[in-house]
Amino acid sequence: MIEKFADVPAKDVNGFRAPFLLTGGDNGFRMLQRHLTFDSSLVHQRYPDEPPFFPYTLDYGFERACIVGPCPQDSYPGLWEVPLNVFFKDRDVDGELMRMPCPMVDGCVPHPTSANETFDYLRSNFEAFYKVNRAPLPVFVHEAWLRNPAREEGYLRFVDWMLEKEDVFLVTVSEVLEFMRNPKPIGAYKQRHCKKSVPE
Length: 200
Known about the structure:
Blueprint: H1 2-6, E1 15-16, H2 25-35, E2 38-39, E3 43-44, E4 56-58, E5 76-81, E6 84-85, E7 87-93, E8 96-102, H3 115-130, H4 149-163, H5 173-181
Parallel strand pairs: 1-2, 2-5, 3-6
Antiparallel strand pairs: 4-5, 7-8
Helix pairs in contact: 3-4
InterPro entries: CE4, Glyco_hydro/deAcase_b/a-brl
Organism: Ixodes ricinus
Protein name: Putative peritrophic membrane chitin binding protein
């Protein structure tokens, strides 16, 4: 289906996100382990003052709290988990400002309504990764969230702001895992270049 509608060759698909984050537990993970390199469906709950999680293999199973079940119970040697580290958004709850967690960028409600609010929301979550342990920040978002012109503008400003940093790279999940397997000092890291052609 991806090959037909998105022009992505099947051989290039090496990861999976379960629809609605419903992995199917061990049945789903047994299938993944046979055909793919990584999963990115498991929500990793944390408090605002806790560091985000790095990708890891399921060699010893999934040892976190299961937020969206069923979660895998068995071990899956060699299968990587790219964690859905929760994002945080300030929200007024009965007159008290609380940092509310959400599994994806567009999961935090109410959604930002201006470019500035979008930029600030993304920047504050980026800084929680960048200033703490520099775990990869996956910006998982549904395309519909970016159809709002103000959010799109704020998102693009955020990308430009990140790219001003000499030690920040926009990469694919496969590149993250390649780096996790074979880390390099920043001076030795060679970023791949994006293909700019758009399929017809």
